[in-house]
Amino acid sequence: MDNKQLTRHISGQFNAELEAIRNKVLAMGGLVEQQLEQALDALGTLDVELAQKVIEGDHRVNGMEVDIDEECTRIIAKRQPAASDLRLVIAISKTIADLERIGDACVRIAKAAMEKRSNNQQPLLVSIESMGRHATRLLHSTLDALARMDVESAIELHKEDAKLDKEYEGIIRQLMTYMMEDPRSIPGILDVLWAARAVERVGDRCKNICEYVIYYVKGRDVRHVSYEEMEKD
Amino acid sequence: MDNKQLTRHISGQFNAELEAIRNKVLAMGGLVEQQLEQALDALGTLDVELAQKVIEGDHRVNGMEVDIDEECTRIIAKRQPAASDLRLVIAISKTIADLERIGDACVRIAKAAMEKRSNNQQPLLVSIESMGRHATRLLHSTLDALARMDVESAIELHKEDAKLDKEYEGIIRQLMTYMMEDPRSIPGILDVLWAARAVERVGDRCKNICEYVIYYVKGRDVRHVSYEEMEKD
């Protein structure tokens, strides 16, 4: 085997390793998406068993984070990637931290689904579920943008979070009215409040992941940068 | 200059670079600690000007995160660190993300300090301030453990977060009583609730940073690992 062949061989193996962690992060994203959907299903139908399943499933998300993170470190140490390869590894290692936290949000939502609710709290849960479905679509599209490293979609989706924030503000106002009308319901409604907040945070995490896609493609850190500046680039 | 000298020279420069990012992350930690103290001062005295100052100061925290993160990437690309050097860079790049989020928590606390409060909400703010001082001490000791890469302290501090969580639960209960007694106060108290939650999150962030110290020293990822397992190691 001559030297050139060897180089190609090593580089081919390196490519395979990069491809493998890309696939792993997408698989982790798929699992988190499923957790989010099931948590919302549980909330919508007050299905305690399903909620329990989501809570128990969180350790798989955590395990994937640790696993992929180790793999990223191993690649950096062994392959000494530069330029876009290094950016890919960094983008992935940041993405999994956000995915893990979306996993925690799913647990929070599932916990709200496990509380006994009076009938008059039903409309509240419907609002949260609907906001949650919005967040699920945002997560799905974000993972799509990540899979295709599609910077245009990432910029579009980055803006989508603001809509979710508006929806969240509306729900908080709604929750306040409920609490003021029936103060005895306050402890139960606080759970719903945490669930709403968890859904809102899913949007923030998606926004972060979009920033990593932009970082990978453009080589520029756009955290704390305004849309105007982002689009100008 | 012979080859050996050159190597020593390069390595000396590399050490200086590692030392420089270590110092930068500690400086960032110092700034965040100051932000947290001032946010709590503002909450304790309802000092709107000081609260405003904290809110405006957050962009400096953000700027430091982006700056140090770039420096970490540059070191990985240029120096191709391995073993403990690589772990140091990774630990730092994760630490700054948590510090940045503690910065966001300070903004949240400062915002609660800016609202007009009736006198009967004063005791609530005192509770949050006291919990906040606890969190500040925890942050200070965590940064200390980080500066000395002291794994024993890191393990001890890691447990401290549970105490903060207990304090937080007590405050939430207290907040609920207030809301139930005077439903009109609910909107104002929700701000206090967010501030309490922000303080509680500071503890979680400190716990994360302790995990990075353990990771750096022991070379082991202890996220999602129980204390028993951690101490057995």
From TrEMBL, chains A, B:
Subcellular location: Cytoplasm
Protein name from the UniProt record: Phosphate-specific transport system accessory protein PhoU
Similarity comment text for this entry: Belongs to the PhoU family.
Species, as recorded: Shewanella avicenniae
UniProt KW keywords: Cytoplasm, Phosphate transport, Transport
Complex formation: Homodimer.
The keyword rRNA-binding belongs to this UniProt entry's keyword annotation: no
Matches recorded under InterPro entries: PhoU, PhoU-like_sf, PhoU_dom
Function: Plays a role in the regulation of phosphate uptake.
Pfam entry (one): PhoU
SUPFAM superfamilies with a match to the protein in the record: PhoU-like
Ranges for domain PhoU: 26-112, 128-213
